[in-house]
Specification:
This is EthD domain-containing protein. By secondary structure, the protein is of the alpha+beta class. The protein has one domain: Alpha-Beta Plaits (2-Layer Sandwich). It is about 30% helix and about 25% strand. The protein is built from three helices and six strands, in the order βαββααβββ. The strands form two sheets. Strands 2-3-1-6 form a four-stranded antiparallel β-sheet, covered by helices on one side. The N and C termini lie close together (about 10 Å). The model has no long low-confidence stretch (mean pLDDT about 95).
Length: about 120
């Protein structure tokens, strides 16, 4: 059966130590997303280099395999409307996705994909 994927691409606030964000990912981010039974697999990545081409605008991306893409964004509420994840996402934006002193903020792009099965 073809898998359904939610791809999140983003950057974290400039100056954040890589290990600090990695520890947050392991201890906070993973448990929050993985508690939802509709999320079949969830993992975070950091871009460490490029092999060819211009590279991407983002340094971080998450791969989230879900059981139903249509339900994931039902009625305009992301993450199946899961209150735990939605609260976590707001806290993430406040801590990692913005810098009030400089006005910097990260776009978080969300892309849906279905595996080409065959």
């Amino acid at each position: 059966m073809a898998r359904e994927l939610v791809l999140l691409t983003y950057n974290v606030r400039p100056g954040v130590p890589a290990e600090e964000y990695a520890e947050f990912t392991r201890t906070v981010d993973y448990p929050v997303f993985r508690q939802n039974p509709r999320i079949q697999e969830y993992s975070n990545y950091v871009v460490t280099g490029r092999g060819r081409g211009q590279g991407e605008w983002f340094r971080h991306f998450d791969l989230m395999f879900v059981d139903d893409l249509d339900a994931f964004d039902a009625q305009g509420r992301l993450h199946f409307g899961d209150a735990v994840i939605l609260d976590h996402a707001q806290k993430w934006r406040d801590r990692w996705g913005s810098d009030p002193e400089t006005g910097w903020h990260s776009d978080v792009n969300i892309t849906y994909a279905r595996e080409i099965w065959g």
